[in-house]
Design brief:
Layout (H helix, E strand, L loop, with lengths): L1 H13 L3 H7 E4 L2 E5 L7 H14 L2 E5 L12 H14 L2 E3 L8 E4 L3 H7 L3 H4 L3 E4 L6 H21 L10 E3 L2 E3 L3 E7 L9 H16 L1 E9 L8 E9 L3 H6 L12 E9 L12 H14 L9 E9 L7 E6 L1
Parallel strand pairs: 2-3, 6-9, 12-13
Antiparallel strand pairs: 1-2, 3-5, 4-5, 7-8, 9-11, 10-11, 12-14
Helix pairs in contact: 1-2, 3-4, 3-7, 4-7
GO molecular function: RNA-3'-phosphate cyclase activity
Protein name: RNA 3'-terminal phosphate cyclase domain-containing protein
Pfam families: RTC (PF01137)
Amino acid sequence: KVCIADSACAAMMGAGFEAEADRLVTREGDEIVVDGSVLEGGGQILRTASVLAALWDLKLRIRSIRGKRTKPGLRPQHLKGLEFVRDFCGGTMTGLEVGSVEVAYDPRGQFRERVARADDSIFGATHMVDVKTAGSCTLLLQTALPCLVASLLLCRCCPPTSPDSKRQRKGSEVQDPTQVLVLRGGTDVPFAPLADYAIRVLCPALLARFGVKVSAKVNRRGFYPKGKGELEVRVSLCERVEAAAATSTSEPRAAVLKHFKTIVVCGGGKPKDWKGESWKPLATIAEKMAEAALKEYTDDSTAFEKEVSCDEKSLSPGLSIVLAA
């Protein structure tokens, strides 16, 4: 546990951030203290630190949360992420309110205990997190996903003959449970990965490199400012996690793209915002913008493909562009 703080500082020093490394992680008694204003001073420090504390049973205190942002402190998305960690992994947490610049968390070793006894807070019904704003669903996923995967790995380590085990038998085979998570908020919002990035990049990468099967689908698009989109995620493990990780390969990036796909998604909003197919001109403009952005990476041999759609269930009009190659 002590090595985590030392490793974080060593990594920063190796990257040339010696001055920042001295402030990032310190120890005060039995607490790990993290300075949330280090480097970009955003929410990523908060997300990473809280999850590691829960999984490694570390007493954690984060100060100067989002210290370099225009509006420092917790925003609704960060608050909901911390609440998920507390409710899913257990322990006690203080400072949970919008605008708070300091949070303290004591996991109390409850995560492993909950998994061992197959607690309903972990293996119960579908897990639901609703930001109630346009806060990013994909950033929330960065907090929730490690917790879900860790619960499945620990569950696999439990003897399948245990009466409390959540591993189910199908014939003579023992099967791992599947975690289901529904995130409500912004699926396509500024300063965060789009939902399509999670679907087309993150999920395949987790399967290829770690043997974790993650599928995601958008039930409703959520654009700024109303949000209220819905991203549904299902998480399970491959039969042999290590084998799946060992077979992953990395191919060099081509200088010229052989295949290029533009995905344009429009939001519905109120009927007066998008009448009939009035969104199509905007989609055409977005498509041309996307092609111009990657002009230097394409030539006459590049095959172009486009996918244009409008989610009329979306409560805010909006537009997102995804480039896939």
